[in-house]
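Try it yourself: sequence plus NAP, in.
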Amino acid sequence: VSKLELLGHKVGTVKLPTGADVARLGIGCWGIGGPDDNLGLPMGWSTSDDSEARRGLELAYELGANLYDTADVYGHGRSERLLGSLLRQVPRSTVAVTSKVGYFAGTAENAYDPHHIRRQLEQSLRNLRTDYLDVYFLHNANFGSSDRYLEGALTAMQDFKREGLIRSIGMRGPHRYAPERLTTADACDKNVRFRKLFDIVQPEVLTVRYNLLTPDNRGGIFDLAAQHGTVVLLNKPLAQGLLTGKYSASAPPQFGLGDHRSRKRWFTPSALAVLSAEIEPLRQRFGSDGLTRIALRYCLQRFDQSAVLVGFTNAAQIRKNITCLGEILSDSDLSFISSVGERIMHALNAQGGVFLDDAREDRA
Ligand SMILES: NC(=O)c1ccc[n+]([C@@H]2O[C@H](COP(=O)([O-])OP(=O)(O)OC[C@H]3O[C@@H](n4cnc5c(N)ncnc54)[C@H](OP(=O)(O)O)[C@@H]3O)[C@@H](O)[C@H]2O)c1
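Structure, out:
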């Protein structure tokens, strides 16, 4: 039995547009980028450690994970270089690697200046010690005023594909408070904006935040993906650790410099108090140790043409996330979980403001 069959047997596989079959639980590499700032804000994670990251990546591979997601901006190359150390050790054809461009402009006017994208891609490939990406994502939707960098960016992406540097083009899902909404004249409803870009870009892969706290259909994204045969990569399945149940209001986490969570309301004592009270029915039904499992299974069971990207900062988390999955959830489990998720969001929003629409929540 191959390694992929080990994990693939538990979670199923999905075919990327490149034809590669990947296990539907993939590994997110944002966390291992470490502490970082971008666009004038903390944008990284202060909890990671390079040697744990390397061990975690090697363990993930041993346990059968063969989809790894990173971005140029995750630790400004650090995450890509760590993943590159795994790619040096394993046959390239046994893994699928995705990276992204769009949040780091360097000295270019816009991150989607075609010359800049090419430089970033070349650097990403060097960091990753590979000569191609399976998916290259347009990481944000800021194509300048009147989208003036959009056409050039798309031409560049098509060129990269023809040159064999990337095998497919990806785009992120609706993203209400991405910076472009604040600056461009045609900024409009996030779903309208997303739909317009989807039609122009015609991405082969989408990525979208999804977990048990997310509104179920993310503005119809799963229907759209099903219609177009687009693969969707779901990110933040554990709500960045909140859904593991490890936080409490009495001992709120203290994040270090360069950690994006230090500016997020989700991790404040008042939000954690709500979360730990409202999550109790899940603890009672599935056990405290079962929370991570059901958070991941909930995402895995949402849409067949998808893979779930779960992040990590140490090897123990990789082991837990890959080995805890157990059996699939029943329909009654799923509706129970989703009603608890709705109650959690309702209670959080009752604290004031709308959590999911918080501008500060959503810029990475
Ligand atoms: N395309 C996009 O726009 C986009 C946006 C966001 C994310 N992504 C991708 O999706 C991936 C997943 O999202 P994410 O990493 O933000 O969030 P996530 O997967 O929901 O949470 C990951 C974090 O939760 C904690 N954790 C993980 N497993 C755990 C366990 N078993 N027990 C306790 N804590 C655990 C770790 O942080 P601590 O150890 O610090 O607690 C880890 O970094 C990212 O890494 C990235 O590759 C893409």
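One thing you can check immediately is this: Confidence is low (pLDDT under 50) at residues 177-187, 357-364.
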